[in-house]
Each structure stands twice: as structure tokens, then as C-alpha cells.
User: What shape does this take?
Amino acid sequence: MRILLVEDEPTLRSQLQAMLEQGGYAVDAVADGIDARHLGETESYDAAVLDLGLPGLDGLSVLRAWRDKGRTLPVLILTARDRWSDKVTGIDSGADDYLTKPFHPEELLARVRALIRRAAGLVSPVLQAGPVVLDSRTGRVSCNDQPVTLTGHEFRVLEYLMHRPGAVVTRTELTEHIYAQDFERDSNTIEVFVGRLRRKLTPDLIETVRGRGYRLVSGP
Ligand code: CA
Assistant: This one.
């Protein structure tokens, strides 16, 4: 899963970026509204965390620009304590949720998880496919009740597929959702990650759909 983080306050931005990365996400962090608008229009994100007061272009204009372009990514806006009217305007402009500053980092993570889950039509933070269980709250993965250690990229591939059980996901799509923008991407490595996931978990968990991509087999 890949998140766009837009926050102009440097300390808060790096704190949030570190926390989201710790939560298992690939994160693109920007400080400027113009950059944010561009990235949200051109890159593939599973959610965005968007501050409202930004240099270049304010957060509400960024959000409206995304929605005008038909970008449906879930958006969590960050607002200052005394600007309750921002929340109303934000939600009316297409935000999915908001958080008032200052906030507890854990709450931000929980809300981001919930937005991603809802966008995938899932209700539980604990995802299951056959013997494999992924707890998105803790980042823990188990197979037949045995804990399994995954690398960051393996985890992101698995989490992405587990949010789309039964759907065919192309290698390009996976590539777009597991790497941050500045990371050197190589869609061939997706095959390597899938191979490792099959070895570490169960061989028939991820099916190769020839010429199209991969599908998570959700049955037992
Ligand atoms: Ca700000």
C-alpha cells in the first residue's frame, strides 16, 4: 500500500512519514500544494493524508483538483483545532475523514487503515486467506497459526493482494502500489516477491494468471 503525505511543517512531516513507513506503507511525502496536486493526479495511491494550510496551493484546492480529475483515492485531511468549518468544507469537497491537530499518531494510523479497508470493501482489520492471516493493526502475518517474518516489500505485496481477494492484479499495478516515488522500480522483482511469499506462506496462495498478473486464492 502506498500513501501520499502532504504536510509543510518539516518536523511533523518526517514524524508522520516515519510512522507510516513503520506501519508498512510506501510513503511519498511533499510539503507543497502544487507538488501534491501533481502527484495525486499522476501517481497511484491507496490513500492521502492532506494538511489544509500549504504553500503553493491550499489543501482544499488540491483536494478539489483531484476530485475534478476523477481521482477517488481516500483522503484524510488534517485541520487546526479552531477551524471546525474547515472540516465541513473539507468533507463537502470530497474528503473521507479528518483529524484535528494535535493528534495522537496511533489515531492517524488507525484512520488510514480504516480508509484503505473501506475503499476495498472490507470490514475487519484482520485479513484472512486460507491459512494465512494478516493483522493490519500490528503488521503481523501468520500461516497455520505460525508467525511468518516478511520483508517490507513482501508485506506490501501480500497486503495489497489481500485487499483484493479473487481479483487479478497486474505486475504494473503491484509495482505502483508497493514502491515510493523515489525508489528504483523494477516490475521483475514482483515475481521474486511473489515467489518468496509462496515459499514462506503456502505455495498455492497466489495464483499466476498467465499474461495478466496474480490472483490471491482466498479459499482454504
Ligand atoms: Ca500547514
About this structure: The chain has a mean pLDDT of 93. The first strand starts at residue 2 and ends at 6. The chain is about 40% helix and 20% strand. The CA atoms of residues 23 and 139 lie 7 Å apart.
